[in-house]
Design a protein that fits this description.
Largest sheet: 8 strands, mixed
Helix content: 25-40%
Number of domains: 1
Radius of gyration: 18 Å
CATH architecture: 3-Layer(aba) Sandwich
Number of strands: 8
Distance between the termini: 37 Å
Length: 310
């Protein structure tokens, strides 16, 4: 399918209103991102947003808790890791998306501002995210969360982190996750896959940009570490059921599809949906792309189904 007119309208808009130099610096990219907040659409008015801090092995981390105003005791939970190539963004950029999902599911959603590369390369962002899961689990009673109904999720680089956290949780047995929710995740470093070649430029996230982000995040010595690159995993014993959402016109489309197939081949339950005509990152493009709202509703329905299946 050709690119969806709504996705094209978004790309046309940012080309005019959010231009960056061809070789933009990391500082320029980080500063520009603030202007994207409005593109996600409005926050839900049915949710309370709380700010707190937790301590990882190397830092105190700002953490945002989205809680329904009508929250019930022992609610299910989603621990969410935001995207941004491991190098930029922050939880409150996702307020529109996460507050909608929170209101519609009744879940408590916890989003952490993990430390970013290149200042803090792997394993620091991953360690921050795993520490967040452990913090949520160990503080479940105070948070009003059912410790048997906790899942992890994330988009893009956050999808990588969620997949990696799910792998470690399975390896250690620290937390038995109810689900892992992966939105167009970065799973592999195969830049010659069909989706990378077909969408090298012109669809938002570029092949060059993704390769640069991987280089900033994962040192060469760690390129075989499955917690850095989940495609390196050779076993999926005890890994949580997966919910995978993809965009057709995305360099990462094959990453997500291939990982979903490997999980499925290993006997892990997988629910997969690909959005025709869509581009990377459209979860946060609600102002232009109505499918963003549909995606949030679909994801919410799947995580409710996942915790009810336990």
């Amino acid at each position: 399918m050709t690119i969806h007119p709504q996705a094209q309208a978004y790309l046309d808009h940012i080309a005019i209103h959010n231009p960056l130099p061809e070789n933009a610096t990391l500082e320029e990219v980080r500063a520009d991102l603030k202007s994207y907040l409005e593109y996600a659409g409005p926050e839900s008015t049915e949710v309370n947003i709380e700010n707190t801090y937790l301590t990882s092995p190397t830092a105190d981390l700002h953490t945002v808790i989205f809680r329904p105003k009508s929250a019930k005791p022992n609610s299910p939970a989603l621990v969410y890791f935001h995207g941004g190539g491991w190098i930029f963004s922050w939880p409150l950029r996702y307020s529109a998306s996460l507050s909608q999902m929170c209101a519609e599911t009744g879940f408590t959603i916890i989003a952490v501002n993990y430390q970013k590369a290149p200042e803090h390369p792997f394993p620091i962002p991953f360690d921050d995210c795993y520490a967040t899961l452990l913090w949520v689990y160990s503080n479940a009673e105070q948070l009003g969360i059912d410790p048997t109904k906790i899942g992890v999720g994330g988009d893009s680089a956050g999808g990588n982190l969620a997949a990696a956290v799910a792998l470690k949780a399975a390896d250690t047995g620290d937390v038995k996750l109810a689900y892992q929710m992966l939105l167009y995740p970065c799973i592999d470093t195969n830049f010659e896959s069909k989706s990378y070649m077909d969408h090298e430029t012109g669809f938002g996230l570029s092949k060059k940009g993704m390769a640069a982000s991987w280089d900033l995040y994962v040192p060469a010595a760690q390129r075989e570490n499955k917690y850095a690159i989940p495609a390196r995993a050779t076993s999926f014993d005890n890994v949580a059921p997966a919910i995978v959402a993809l965009a057709e016109h995305d360099v990462l489309r094959d990453d997500g599809a291939n990982y979903a197939q490997r999980l499925q081949d290993a006997g892990i339950p997988v629910t997969l949906k690909e959005y025709p005509g869509m581009i990377h990152g459209f979860l946060n493009h609600g102002q232009f792309v109505p499918d963003a709202y549909e995606m949030r509703r679909w994801l919410g329905a799947q995580i409710v189904k996942a915790v009810n299946a336990r």
